[in-house]
Amino acid sequence: MESEKLAQTENTVLIKGWIPEEKIEEFEKVVKSEADDNYYLKVTEADKNDETVPIKLKNGKVATVFENLTGMYAYPRYNEIDPTPLFTPFYILFFGMMGADVGYGLVLLLATIFVLKVVNLSSQMRKSVKFFFYLSFSVIFWGILYGSYFGAEINGVWRLVNPAKQYNSLLIGSIIFGVVHIFIGLGIKAYLLIRDGKSLDAVYDVLFWYMALMGGMVYLIFKLMNLSPIVTSISMWIMIAGMVGIVLTGGREAKGVGAKLGGGLYSLYGISSYVGDFVSYSRLMALGLSGGFIASAINMIAGMISGNWFGMIFVPVILIGGHLFNMFLSFLGAYVHTSRLMYVEYFGKFYEGGGKPFKDFRTESKYINMDD
């Protein structure tokens, strides 16, 4: 329970606050057992549009450890949805794509298992360690696809793509991931608008953008590659219809025909920001390549000085120190840039936030003095 007001007189104490719905019955039993019949308890359902309602996130086993990322951006308001389970799969996927190395992933996995098993952690720290525990599997998965084992290749071991030679394929794949990610964000926005009884807004703000963006992409691909003229023509008209719809409805809240048209044209100009958003996902390729190339360079340097006994002394230092440092940089970069993709490109399509976190009405002791 979070206390909002606490007042008292000589004979009466008044407590007003918030409590999760699933805790009401338990709370009533506690009050009755402590106060007998000397109390008055009134529970009312919170107004979904009340911005003062504190937010208590409730997610599954995996998504729970990603709630800190939601809190770093902004807690949802009471009438919003919790974005945590909606971005968790993408966060795991993208982080692994940027870290992409089997060796680095195994080190992260074993380190987090050791800490979870051996170290006595607070609940918050335990969630943070579990966060990287789950991410380690994605790093290993993408490392297998890239064929990277501490920056080295293993002859005869299968891999899906060679990053050093097939970087164009990785770039295209990264942008495809971005398109899917952003379109899902728009789809969530449409769902929220329809849920709130704003079906026409879903058409104006989502469907028209789907038409303009998807039609434009299909048109460009088929036109540049000289593919089916019929599909090229259909996609062109879908794109035009979407753009016209954006111009006609993008400024619908303005007063006057000129202002509405100007607002619509400005909304259509926003298509350039979508292009920037799509290109932004190229960082999925860039960070994966940079970490892999640095790891390979570390191995190369160690190999160059291993020709004599004096150089062999420094080989372990270079390999261990170099890979640990590169692993730190790779994971730090993956953490920062994956968070950026979630906060800017993804959340920007459907999520605002602005809620305040729910805090239990109790003292939390960090240290306890025990006298003999």
Please characterize this protein's 3D structure.
The chain has 372 residues and is mainly alpha-helical. It has one domain (54-348). Helix content is 64%, strand content 3%. The protein is built from twelve helices and two strands. The chain has helices at 24-35, 67-73, 84-99, 102-118, 123-146, 167-195, 199-224, 229-249, 257-269, 271-280, 283-304, 309-350; strands spanning 2-8, 13-18. The protein has a two-stranded antiparallel sheet with strand order 1-2. The longest helix has 42 residues, at 309-350. Keywords: Ion transport, Membrane, Transmembrane, Transmembrane helix, Transport. It is found in: Membrane. Belongs to the V-ATPase 116 kDa subunit family. The chain crosses the membrane at residues 90-119, 131-150, 170-194, 206-224, 230-250, 281-302, 309-336. It is a multi-pass membrane protein.
Strand content: under 5%
Rg from Cα:
27 Å
DSSP helical segment count? 12
Query: How does the major sheet shape up?
Result: 2 strands, antiparallel
From the helix content, strand content and strand pairing, which structural class follows?
mainly alpha
Mean pLDDT: 91
- So what's the overall shape? flat
N-end to C-end Cα span: 35 Å
Order of helices and strands: EEHHHHHHHHHHHH
- The count of strands amounts to 2
Unreliable stretches (pLDDT < 50, length at least 5) are: none
Return the domain count. Answer: 1
Strand order of the largest sheet: 1-2
**How helical, in percent, are the residues?**
55-70%
